[in-house]
Specification:
The complex is a heterodimer of chains A (607) and B (188). Chain A is 60% helix and 2% strand. Chain A has 17 helices and four strands. Chain A has a two-stranded antiparallel ribbon with strand order 1-2. Chain A has a two-stranded antiparallel sheet with strand order 3-4. In chain A, a hairpin with a 3-residue loop joins strand 1 and strand 2. In chain A, helix 3 packs antiparallel against helix 17 and helix 7 runs antiparallel to helix 8. The longest helix of chain A has 37 residues. The radius of gyration of chain A is 25 Å and the shape is globular. Chain B is mostly helical and 188 residues long. Chain B is built from five helices and no strands. The longest helix of chain B has 31 residues. Chain B starts with 12 loop residues before the first helix and ends with a helix. The chains are: A mainly alpha (607), B mainly alpha (188). At the A-B interface, helix 1, helix 7, helix 8 and helix 9 of A face helix 1 and helix 4 of B.
């Protein structure tokens, strides 16, 4: 009832068959286990489903990286236990080349899409949007539930591709044709690739259903007084994330449709002049693999910001709350989010500088790419000035938010190198690229996610996570991330290419064998610490210290006005009205003023 | 419900969601048609002669858009019998459109434009028109559901939002078809 009522409001529905009975919010539906925990339409439960599914994927994707790091760090050693867990993938304890590529490909696909897109914006958009804008639920709870189940279905299909005879897809997470278009090109291009496309198509549908909901919820379902400029920055960030997804994922889907027809319909959209040993010359003529790259990167670049913007929003919010200061330059933050959203669509060809792109066109894309440095720098400046002379509380969430800023700066600076088409001639496809994107969108997005999880865990489960484990988690992850990826810049500048199986047989890269060993060792340690985080998460759900006050962080936003364990509908009574922006910290001699408090007669007005 | 009385409701969220979804679908076809433009400028490009039946299917689509609008009007005037009739006509016209598209594809096949083999306008035409037909099919299924709801004796529902949503979507697939058709005529 609450969903339908929240949807239709007091509009013209009054005559529909579903008579609005009952006024008491506490006990409307009789909820069974299935409707509460499985096919739930409550945005908070859906958020938790996204989060836990994402965490499972993160562990699998992370483990994959540990496995191929073993190969990279110790190329001449055999690990017999690998054969025990991987079977024929690692005969004699050494990962076979095909499966090394499969691991790398799946690591990328899983982390980029299933963890940092589904797991990150799926979790926080679902959890925070209704709570922070003051809504009972999403615009369409049903579509929201479908969004999760498409994600789950895609996950199952992707997971099953790990177990097929010919292995999962192994042509790189970008799935460039012809490797992705021709089943005879490699073992992973057979069934594995079909399952990959199906899983990704379901993932796209899930993202679209979710994104439509987020946008229309933010624009239509805000509580009274909550004008757009009073929204917390988390909501702005999640809103722009959804807009990016809605506009770019369909183009990826178009690309996949053409790919599917190239695979099974005999078309030649991406294929031309191909000869395969053992098969012979193919009849396909006139296609171009570059077309796929254009379609892919038209999504692919916005995808980077789909991953990063939620982390930016979460970091802004957590930084402000724990600095006990208003966020510096709220409007500048919003405008720079908007600028990033626009620019995200205009820079895709910087992934294709060395594909034979017209150099003049390349220089236009260089300019547009480097322009992104402007809003990014504004954001960094604002985060730092928020921290400046602040009364900082070093909660685990805050540490991760600060870590996010650090990583975003380090990774962002190398983006300026890579955005230059001339430098890219040397740097493309090298470890420099790996280092850049892992720091700036991999680890830093993870830090944003961790900041969000530690900060909103009390709201999700009514308990706190263990602080000691959280601090260990933070320091080892931060130091480890830099120790893993910093040396990779150096390797990349020295010309070490990505995606090679064994560098020890190359005279020019032999010198890095000790460095590779070091990186692999740190990667294993950091992975182990992530497992500790997962333990902390699940342990704290059941045994964590209980939250006893409504507003444990003394935050201004609406989610802390709900009961400690809010039911479906979020607020037992009326939805509170909003009178001020979300960042009245240390104002007029008070530590914080909630958004629900009316502006006093002699109060200095912010806006 | 008392709890939503404080919420401002300008556009109904479902209608709003549909508009965003339409933007999303536009991006999908924009991706495909721009791929066509890029490929069309390459050497060795082959074009197709548009079968006559696509002109007729355009007429059917336009007509169905008209009947849909009439159905919405009758619904709002509470003349339910006329609404049901017009809804039925719209759904039938939608299905007829899909059948005509399939016939068009068969005629193209017969004239030697194949899906497999070297690339050309024909391959794009199959994919783009095919995807459009899938979107029409989705609308027709939604109409079918509305159709059964309209004949249900159990529920009396005078909420016009679902009808407005489906009619907006139906007009959209109509416009989309005209855009695609004109696009292929111009880029021949």
């Amino acid at each position: 009832m609450s969903n339908e009522a929240a949807l239709h409001g007091h509009s013209e529905v009054a005559h529909s068959h579903e008579v609005h009975h009952g006024d008491d919010h506490g006990h409307h539906h009789k909820e069974t286990f299935i409707t509460k925990y499985v096919f739930s339409q409550d945005h908070k439960m859906i958020a938790k489903q996204f989060l836990i599914t994402g965490m499972i994927w993160a562990m699998i994707g992370g483990l994959m990286s540990v496995l191929f790091r073993l190969q990279l760090g110790y190329p001449d050693q055999a690990f017999p236990w690998l054969e025990d867990i991987l079977g024929r993938w690692a005969k004699g304890g050494k990962i076979s080349p095909e499966n090394y590529y499969a691991l790398v490909t799946m690591h990328g696909t899983v982390l980029v899409f299933f963890v940092l897109t589904g797991g990150l914006s799926g979790t926080f958009a679902n959890f925070l949007i209704p709570l922070q804008i003051g809504a009972r639920d999403m615009a369409s709870p049903m579509m929201n539930m479908l969004s999760y189940w498409f994600f789950f279905g895609g996950s199952v299909v992707m997971m099953s591709s790990l177990f097929v005879q010919t292995g999962p897809f192994s042509g790189g997470w970008t799935a460039y044709p012809p490797l992705s278009a021709l089943g005879s090109a490699s073992p992973g291009s057979k069934t594995g690739m079909d399952l990959w496309i199906v899983a990704m198509a379901m993932f796209v549908v899930s993202s679209l259903l979710g994104g439509l909901n987020y946008v229309s919820t933010v624009l239509n379902m805000r509580t009274k007084g909550m004008s757009m400029t009073k929204l917390p920055l988390t909501i702005w960030a999640l809103f722009f994330t959804a807009v990016l997804g809605i506009l770019s994922f369909p183009v990826l889907l178009s690309g996949f449709v053409l790919l599917l027809f190239d695979r099974h319909g005999g078309t030649s959209f991406y294929l031309s002049d191909i000869y395969i040993t053992g098969v012979g010359a193919l009849p396909n003529e006139g296609g171009s693999a570059i077309l796929y790259q254009h379609l892919f990167w038209f999504l692919g670049h916005p995808e980077v910001y789909i991953i990063l913007l939620p982390a930016m929003g979460i970091a802004s919010e957590v930084l402000s709350v724990n600095s006990r200061k208003p966020i510096f330059g709220y409007m500048a933050m919003v405008v720079s989010l908007f600028a990033i959203t626009i620019l995200a669509f205009l820079v895709w060809a910087h992934h294709m500088f060395v594909t034979g792109l017209n150099p003049f066109l390349g220089s236009v894309f260089v300019l547009l790419t480097l322009l992104i440095a402007v809003p990014s720098a504004i954001k960094v400046f604002n985060w730092l000035t928020t921290l400046w002379k602040a009364n900082i509380r070093f909660t685990p969430g805050m540490l991760f938010a600060i870590g996010f800023v650090s990583l975003f700066i380090s990774g962002g600076l190398t983006g300026i190198f890579l955005g230059n088409s001339t430098l890219d001639i040397h740097l493309h496809d090298s470890y420099f690229v790996i280092a850049h994107f892992h720091i700036v969108m991999g680890v830093s997005a993870f830090f944003g996610m961790f900041a969000g999880i530690y900060h909103w865990f009390p709201k999700m489960y009514g308990r706190f996570m263990n602080n000691t484990m959280a601090y260990i988690h933070f320091w080892i992850t931060l130091v480890g991330a830099y120790l893993i990826f910093w040396p990779m810049h150096y390797e990349g500048l020295a010309g070490m290419p990505r995606r090679y199986l064994d560098y020890s047989i190359w005279e020019s890269f032999k010198q890095f064998s000790e460095l590779n060993k070091f990186i692999s060792t740190v990667a294993i340690i950091v992975f182990a610490v992530q497992l500790m985080f997962v333990f902390n998460f699940f342990y704290s759900i059941f045994k964590g210290r209980k939250v006893t006050t409504l507003n444990p962080w003394s935050a201004t936003t609406l989610e802390w006005t709900t009961p400690i364990r809010p039911g479906h509908g979020n607020w037992p009574g009326e939805i509170p009205e909003v009178h001020r922006w979300a960042y009245d910290y240390s104002k007029d001699g008070r530590d914080f003023i909630p958004q629900t408090e009316p502006i006093g007669p002699d109060e200095s007005n912010h806006h | 419900m008392e709890m939503v009385s404080s919420q401002r409701q300008k556009v109904h969220p479902h209608k709003f969601t549909l508009w965003i979804a339409i933007g999303s679908i536009i991006m999908m076809f924009a991706g495909l048609t721009s791929a066509y433009i890029v490929k069309g400028s390459l050497p060795g490009w082959s074009t197709v002669e548009m079968p006559q039946i696509f002109y007729y299917s355009t007429g059917v689509m336009l007509l169905s858009s008209f009947t849909m609008q009439m159905a919405l009007k009758s619904f709002k005037e509470r003349s339910m019998n006329r609404y049901r009739r017009l809804l039925t006509v719209t759904a039938v016209l939608g299905c007829l459109f899909i059948v005509m598209q399939v016939i068009g594809f068969m005629q193209l096949q017969a004239s030697g434009v194949f899906l497999n083999g070297s690339t050309g306008a024909g391959q794009f035409l199959y994919i783009i028109f095919g995807l459009h037909a899938v979107h029409v099919l989705g609308g027709a299924i939604a109409l079918l559901i509305m159709f059964f709801k309209a004949f249900s004796r159990k529920f009396r529902n005078y909420n016009s939002v679902p009808v407005e949503v489906i009619s907006t979507y139906w007009h959209f697939v109509d416009f989309l078809w005209i855009y695609l058709f004109v696009f292929f005529l111009i880029k021949r």
